[in-house]
Amino acid sequence: MKTLVYSIHGFDQASLEKAAKGKHNLTFTDQSLNASTASLANDFEAIALFTSDMANGKVLELLHDYHVKYIALRSVGYDYVDIAKAKSLGIKVANVPAYSPYAIAEHALTLLLALNRKLILSQYLMRIGDYRLDQLIGSDLHGKTIGIIGTGKIGAAFASIMNGFGCELLAYDVIQNEALQSKLNLSYCSLDYLCKNADVISVHCPLNKATQHLFNYHTFLMMKKNVIFINTARGGIVNTVDLIKALEENRLHAVGLDVYEFEKPIFFKNNMTVKIYDDLFLKLKSFSNVLITGHQAFLTNEALEGIAATVINNLDEWQKNKQSLNDL
Ligand code: NAD
Fold first, then answer.
1. Cβ 233 vs Cβ 203: under 8 Å
2. What is the distance between the alpha carbons of residues 258 and 170, in angstroms, rounded to a whole number?
3. Nearest CA to 52 among 89, 7, 11?
4. Is 168 a catalytic site residue?
5. Cβ contacts of residue 8 below 8 Å, gap of 6+?
6. Cβ within 8 Å of residue 314, ≥6 positions away
7. Which neighbouring-strand residues pair with 177?
8. 146 CA distance to ligand 1 centroid (A)?
């Protein structure tokens, strides 16, 4: 089936081509999908999207006019697609519900360790020849309380890692994972209790109506003053204005972000010579205790292979006029 792959990057074209084995007549564009680029999909039966794309109601109507029937997402999250609207237009959408959860869980850990042991500052001091240690004191993670928001595939992988560090595990989820609870000695609790008691909070739930701005000034106020807050899930789960206020008031020890509420116009492209008119982002980047990566948590070889295999499998099933198991 003729497929247009939007938002292609140097890192994912090869894995998609390898998985397709010549099928689906893949055409690649580095343009992201929006109302002005929807016309590129004219006469393509399927399109493949990434988190930098935006398939809202208006864009879906345009795609429908261009006869697009299938949308294969190259991500777990599907907050950038209006699923109800797609259904009403008869456009099928499938995500990649599972690929290496370790990729994201290990990246959350990477942010945590780098912040806790002040690796960025330490590397800077090393480069300029300042070998004093006075600014580099961290804390043992062993024995600390780790709060995990969302204990699905990624949250569970993160919980296992932190269990291995000898941490206490608190979790908040709308569905409790009994097996994980007994295997790891993890306790579920309310969001308030978790915020008040965790030394580290790591976010692993999806972005939806219930989780949008789940972390806001009120929740930041409840947290311990020495908390390390990590978000590798979706930027919109955190109210960025409130996060900045909490940072300015020294309410948080350190913050690690792989996602940012307004990342779409910024991430995944070379903006070295482009002026970024986003004061919130520039402010966030200016804090020495904030470490930001550009939505790279998924970026391991294993995850890229897993994503590509599932995307092609979804297209294969649709081509056979079957439902994909991953249809949303
Ligand atoms: P999952 O569906 O396996 O787990 C999500 C968990 O969140 C579930 O246990 C669910 O019950 C819980 N949840 C849902 N609503 C909640 C709420 N209101 N409050 C608390 N918990 C709630 O998904 P996953 O594979 O673990 O992925 C989690 C999220 O990570 C994705 O939705 C995606 O946004 C994000 N993600 C980010 C990257 C990245 O590169 N940064 C990569 C993959 C996924």
1. yes
2. 22
3. 7
4. no
5. 16, 28, 29, 30
6. 70, 72, 94, 96, 324, 326
7. none
8. 17
25 three-class SS:
helix
Question: Is the distance from the beta carbon of residue 76 to the nearest atom of ligand 1 less than 6 Å?
Answer: yes
Q: What is the pLDDT along the chain (328 residues), one digit of tens a residue?
A: 899 999 999 999 999 999 999 999 999 999 999 999 999 999 899 999 999 999 999 999 999 999 999 999 999 889 999 999 999 999 999 999 988 999 999 999 999 999 999 999 999 999 999 999 999 999 999 999 999 999 999 999 999 999 999 999 999 999 999 999 999 989 999 999 999 999 999 999 999 999 999 999 999 999 999 999 999 999 999 999 999 999 999 999 999 999 999 999 999 989 999 888 999 999 999 999 999 999 999 999 999 999 999 999 999 999 998 888 899 9
State whether the beta carbon of 175 lies less than 6 angstroms from ligand 1. yes
| Integer Cα distance of 257 and 5 in angstroms | 27
What secondary structure does DSSP assign to 44-96, as a single string? Answer: -SEEEE-TT--B-HHHHHHHHHTT--EEEESSS--TTB-HHHHHHTT-EEE--
